[in-house]
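Hi,

I'm pasting everything inline rather than attaching a file, because the server keeps stripping attachments. The sequence lines come first, and each chain or strand is labelled.
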Amino acid sequence: MDIDDILRQVDPVRHSVPPETRDLQGLTRLWVAERSAPELLEWPQDGLIDRVNSRVKAQIEKVEEMTGDMDPKTNFALIVIQTELERYKYLVRSYLRARIAKVDKHALHYLSSQELRRRLSPTEIAYATRHQALLHNHYLSSFLSSFPEKLQNLNDTSGNVSMIDSPDPNTTVFIRLLRDLDVQGMGTDDDIKLPSQNGDIVILRWSSAKPLVDDGDAELV
Amino acid sequence: MYGDMGNKLVHHAKRTQNLAHLPPYQAEIVRGVTREVRDLKKDVDELLEPFGDSQPTEPHISCTVMVNHLAIRRNKRCLLAYHRTRTDKLEELVWNGSDVVDLSGQQVRDTTGTSNGGAVGGVDATTSSLSPQEEEYVRQYSDLLAAYKGQWTDIDLTGSLEPPRDLFIDVRVLKDAGEIQTEYGAITLTKNSQFYVRQGDVERLITQGYLHKLG
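And the predicted assembly:
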């Protein structure tokens, strides 16, 4: 806790964090989490990305407006705004790319069930479906069409081998705890229970970490 | 031997993963593997024909059918793996903004460069390292990507994935790129000159290899 936190407790109105800052923090969190999680995380439902988009647009317009001005003072402000804009754009771009990379890798897996589909944004669903159709068509025209009909599918699960590849839930991740609790982890010989405190960073398997992250008890780093 | 050709494809795929460019499409092997699959299928059908809908009782027949069937599946996996590796590579190229036409052109230069003007008989077959199907795929994928990118016009999805550090960067011009317009006026990019410019203005030219970022 620092001085800002104390001030905020005393006077929550004047020292509350403006929504813009909160959105930026939210976006940064999402971005960090998405990049370190082995599977696709949920698309933010509260319109965060829309808000971010409209803000980027507004800043671009502002930049265009200010460009005409030759005053050195606005010129300096312009550079600051542009730098910030580039960074903001980078965050969004990197976030979207990280998601698309995961969707591409396991497209059939994410399209296979309703529950998993909900994690994607509508545009991502459209992209994944179309991409998968393209791939199937490509395979068909390249070689699959001369195969026996029964073997032309791409989502066969018979013969003990599923053709649908899914992300590995046992990849290791780093998480930072947001409150004191006992972390349950899988070990090679024995499962352990580790009493941990708020702010501790632990490394464990994604399958054990996921419930903690979902409940908001921890965040990915 | 069953599956030998499939194995060859997998080796090709493995090699492709570590190459910067895309090696020519192995149409001959792909055809060979599909032919093998068709033959195997025909064998299975002939073996099973006398039994109609009932299961064969002789162990030697069920065994042959089983082995043939597994070989077919294995071949299918090999073919899928080979094509998937190639399409992944192609998608990467599309994301990086390369052109299919560019790509084929580059292959032509490569082959003429290495053949030393000797045997030119095979040049026609190697003008493009892509199969016609793959070219079609790349075209469609570019469209798809463009459509997806269209939703994020302000962000420029295919832009650099390096976190931006400075707004302005030093660049050296590697190839003449003509004149470009920036908000501070026009600059003419002549070979071997050096400029201090806004990164956003020249990003495209850097990925296309006209400029080199310094520092």
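The longest strand of chain A covers residues 172-177.

If the labels don't parse on your end, tell me and I'll reformat.
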